[in-house]
Design brief:
alpha/beta, two-stranded antiparallel ribbon, globular, binds flavin mononucleotide
């Protein structure tokens, strides 16, 4: 089997958006001997908001000093950094919405934001660091990948779509060339493409010798793995294989959709990945979705995997980006075994099922959801569609219904849609406050399995750090060594 890293990576920390897997979490994982993966989703916006919130610990400004295109770093700082918040000023700036030819602010924020996140996660050690993107969020890809490569990112993971175009893009950027991304546009009568030519923005592009990161698609079927290998326009270096119990977005069940009494999709035999077919591909793979225990790590290795990817165990750890007060509530509920996580078919505008943790006071509650007046001001999950005349339009089923219908959307698609963009930024303490004082509510995603909390915490109020989680998981290694000494 092809090797991915110098040493086998047994524990991969999932790239969890928005900024749950931030640079602090991933750096802590790397220092404890695992593979840290930062989330690249919406990270340009998070750079702006962190700077607007005063960049309290100076991390963003320190990373920006190292950003290799200084004029862009200056632009970002000048526009977004506020050393002192004016009283009563709690709103974050509106940033232009992404289009096929993005506004200069977005170019600067996404190149710099991806750079900073990876640069900070890599600070002070030489362990590999990866970055995660959702294929479905197409428009930032070229800028994000180039920004992450400027920081020397070691691998990219990508799910929520079929990312066959990414390997070719990695090769192009590594060769100092421009790259293009064919966009998925509903009702398209022609090909629509986003293009990024680094030379137009980076005076030293072409001379930089950027290293090509490894690429690991996230898949939930052996067929998709085979398609990725056959149809990708470059190298696939391994797979993350995610079961339907994993946190975040899930693949829909295969075959005819069946729903249980709680309105959750029923997954069955067809959804179990055929590992024999995966092994035949000869590429390293990691198993994800309720694998956060020593026993499951051992089982994964016995099945031929390099190890596991875990999310929830790291999302609830001290170092993750989730606001501490909410993490405490969820850890307590997990400890008391009262935390329910459901698979919501409608919550995400992406159209993929999404795991929702039922936490009082969040949009998982009907009354909190209904209080929110529909508004689409971040727009990461908007769908692209072709308008009469061939231009591209943008619509999101959780935007105001009349707007959505005017854009040709169907009313049935709007029911029970949550605004994940705003909720997920609120989760990490960077939520928007509206002009009338309304504060965007939170909405959390976790995997179905939170049983590890019972081992890692001594009681319902207790907490744990990344190192505790990794020490616990590594009990499953037959090597009988701490990961750090592997
Ligand atoms: C809070 C949270 C956010 C997540 N966000 C993403 C994401 O943005 N992209 C992604 O590929 N996977 C995401 N995931 C999935 C994880 O990367 C990982 O594969 C999954 O959590 C593994 O299952 P487990 O939660 O049972 O450990 C997320 C998971 C959680 C818990």
């Amino acid at each position: 089997m092809k090797a991915a890293f110098r040493k086998p990576m047994r524990i991969v920390q999932g790239g969890m958006g928005v900024a749950v897997s931030n640079y602090r979490l991933s750096r802590a994982v790397a220092l404890a001997g695992g593979l840290g993966i930062v989330s690249g989703t919406a990270i340009g916006h998070m750079l702006a908001r962190r700077l607007e919130a005063g960049d309290q610990d100076g991390d963003m400004r320190r990373a920006l000093e190292h950003f290799p295109i200084p004029s862009l770093a200056e632009h970002v700082l000048k526009k977004y950094f506020r050393s002192v918040k004016k009283s009563g000023e709690t709103r974050f700036s509106n940033i232009p919405l992404f289009t096929v030819e993005p506004h200069f602010d977005l170019i600067a924020l996404y190149l710099a934001g991806n750079f900073c996140e990876v640069w900070l996660a890599k600070e002070g050690h030489d362990q590999p660091i990866g970055i995660n993107y959702l294929e479905k969020v197409q428009l930032p890809h070229l800028l994000s990948i180039y920004g992450a490569m400027l920081a020397g990112v070691d691998c990219i993971t990508m799910g929520a779509g079929v990312p066959t175009q990414i390997p070719g893009i990695l090769a192009k950027f590594a060769a100092g060339e421009s790259a293009a991304y064919r966009l998925h546009v509903e009702g398209a009568t022609k090909t629509h493409t986003a293009i990024f030519d680094p030379k137009q923005i980076d005076p030293l592009a072409g001379e930089r010798q950027l290293r090509k990161p490894l690429f690991f698609p996230i898949i939930a079927s052996s067929l998709l793995a085979e398609i990725m290998v056959k149809k990708s326009d470059g190298d696939i270096d391994g797979f993350i294989i995610e079961a339907s119990t994993a946190g975040g977005h899930n693949a829909p069940p295969r075959g005819v959709l069946r729903i249980d009494e709680h309105n959750e999709p029923i997954y069955g035999e067809k959804d179990i990945v055929d590992l024999e077919r995966i092994r035949r591909l000869g590429l390293p793979f990691w198993l994800a979705g309720s694998y956060a225990s020593p026993e499951k790590l051992r089982e994964a290795i016995a099945l031929g995997a390099q190890g596991i990817q875990a999310g929830t165990i790291f999302a609830l750890a001290e170092e993750s980006g989730i606001a501490p007060e909410w993490k405490k509530i969820m850890r307590k509920a997990a400890y008391e075994r009262t935390l329910r996580v459901r698979t919501d078919m409608l919550a995400s505008s992406s159209g993929f099922p999404f795991k929702v943790a039922e936490v009082p006071g969040t949009s998982s509650e009907e009354k909190v959801y209904l209080e929110r007046i529909r508004l689409c001001d971040l727009g990461f999950l908007r769908t692209l569609y072709e308008k009469n005349g061939g231009a591209i339009g943008f619509r999101c089923p959780s935007e105001p219904v009349t707007l959505y219908l005017r854009k040709g959307g169907k009313e049935t698609d709007t029911a029970k849609r949550k605004c994940l963009c705003n909720a997920l930024t609120a989760n990490i303490g960077l939520g928007q406050e509206c002009r009338d004082g309304y504060v965007e509510p939170t909405l959390f995603t976790l995997g179905n399995d939170t049983e590890f909390v019972r081992t890692l915490c001594s009681g319902p109020e207790d907490t744990y750090a990344v190192r505790d989680a990794i020490n616990y998981l590594s009990e499953g290694l037959t090597e009988k060594k701490r990961l750090t000494s592997l």
